[in-house]
Amino acid sequence: MNMVVCVKRVPDTAESEVHIDASGKDIDKSKLSFGINEADNYAVEEAIQIKERLGGTVNVISVGGKDSDEQIRMALAKGGDEAIRIEDPAMAGSDGFAIAKALAAAIKGMEFDIVFTGALADDDGSAVVGVALAELLGVNHAAYVKKVEILEDGKKIKVGRELEGGLMEFLEMELPAVLTIQTGINEPRYASFKGIKQAAKKEIAIKSLSDLGLDASEVGEAGSWAVLEKFTPPVVGEMAEILTGEPEETAAKLAAILKEKGLV
Amino acid sequence: MLGFQLSEEQKAIQKVAHEFAEKEIRPLAAEYDEEEKFPQGFVEKAFQAGLTYLYVPEEYGGQGMDFLTACLVNEELAWGCCGFATILGANSLGITPILVAGSEEQKRKYLNDLTSRPSLAAMALTEPEAGSDAGAVKSTAVRQGDFYVLNGTKCFISNGGIADLTTVFASTDREAGTRGLSCFIVPKDTPGISGGKKEKKMGVRASVTSEVILDNCRVPAENLVGEENRGFKIAMMTLDKARVSVASNSVGIARAAFEAAVDYAKQRVQFGRPIAEFQAIQFMLADIATDIEAGRLMYMKAAWLETQGLPFTLESAMCKAFCSDMAMRVTTDVVQIFGGYGYMRDYPVEKYMRDAKINQIWDGTNQIQRVVISRAILS
Prior knowledge:
The structure holds two protein chains of two kinds.
Chain A: E1 2-6, E2 9-11, E3 34-36, H1 38-54, E4 57-63, H2 69-78, E5 82-86, H3 96-107, E6 114-118, H4 129-137, E7 140-150, E8 156-162, E9 168-174, E10 177-181, H5 193-201, E11 204-207, H6 247-260
Parallel strand pairs in A: 1-4, 1-6, 4-5, 5-11, 6-10, 7-10
Antiparallel strand pairs in A: 2-3, 7-8, 8-9
Chain B: H1 8-35, H2 42-48, H3 67-80, H4 82-101, H5 104-115, E1 121-124, E2 140-144, E3 147-158, E4 165-171, E5 181-187, E6 193-198, E7 209-220, E8 224-225, H6 231-267, E9 269-270, E10 273-274, H7 279-307, H8 313-338, H9 340-343, H10 349-358, H11 366-378
Parallel strand pairs in B: 1-4
Antiparallel strand pairs in B: 2-3, 3-7, 4-5, 5-8, 6-7, 9-10
Helix pairs in contact in B: 1-3, 3-4, 3-6, 3-7, 4-6, 6-7, 6-8, 6-10, 7-8, 8-10, 8-11
């Protein structure tokens, strides 16, 4: 089974204070720590588990600057074989569709059975890249995948998709395919020190747009369908009722509201 | 040339250890502290994650980390919970006598076995009347044919009674004091070794601390580590490493406390503003951050000396005393910053204070460290 996993380096905003930067188009990342996008971490694990069971290769791809090597190397340390990083100044401002174009250009020439992406990125939350990538590659896809079963001949797979309310939808599809992986599908391993040392020796192939046969106008803002205008903090009070007063008072008001709405 | 840059590999494993501490240790820390119970399944998790026997060379199945890298990992694990970190730290302590003085055959036989599975190791030196005065060890080892027969009671042994292998220090010549100590490898299934009283502790309560009782424990003569009567030197070489590990643990605890204090100070409002806006709190936090920075540089220097094969006994004693005293001071101040809430067990900071304390005591009290330091500077 030849597999490709797309990974993204994202800031960890779960337990940090987030501020909009001076440009108004991004958050201030100077004090944030970074890691692999959570769903991508599960995607890496799924690919490596399949490789361990059935053999094959796992090729890791990321779009980003040199910092992204950290996430790529961690995926290599866990069992990835080769890696590509797409870096080009013209990529700035790309939406999910433009990112997918760059990924598709890199993947197109490879022999692959399954391409894995995370279902959703922790930073922009678009859930676009995987599905757009499948369209651009002209292959089948399934999104929010929480179970992958390779059928015996290795030409088909059965996938379980997580629907709302905990329902699972099962599909069979022919390979090659793109699967966007939902968190919780497996238990991602920790990279070992031995793996980390081996990964340090591997080469990460850096590809520019011209290496991929793409024109600058196909990516960035010019090649995107969606352009980010600005970030604004949520407006306080518009949708919410703010209770004021002493704790005893506000607690009583809150209890009354919950009761009135039949929520308790 | 002077460099403070960690390698990419060191930063990567530091990150892995941090994530492991965050996901596998922190969520359990309060419960196992409160109930003072050993976390079943934890060693298996650490084994699978590749975080056991950190500085055992790969040829003996270990992780093959240099000592500095291992200490960076220790710091992260102790940041998660010093009790959990102690379980793995006691493993490393337990096998270090074999690593520093064991024969090739002993290393192959025992280290390869321990590193191949989730296992526990312990080192048994301390006795009720032989704490700082290691030469006062009363446990005896008497040669009988191809065996040594060990008798005595060891106390305060981390992983004691549950370890798959214990390195035991016993006297082969009672008259000779420290020059009569010998070190033995005692696997768990050796008849005559057992766990005694399990201690109830102030801190590091997820780890087991127990007596180890030797009752006519017959150990094959080939399990003698190094030479007869040269055990004290082995113990000291082992403790040189252990003390740097203690220092890295102390920095981990102090850092955990510091991070909690920064978060709390930004949120806690008194007199109409967050207490982080008061200079009294700002200066405490500034001192804490400075202390932690100094402590980390000290243990990293000591560990680096070890990786270079240079003497590090003095630096080891210095960083052990400094970092554990620092962690005690820092965690006490952090409880102060939290005020009344800090004293309550609902918040983690009183635990940090309890966990910090043992680091001033074990692996040579900080008074003994000062003996080591003053001897070195006055000799």
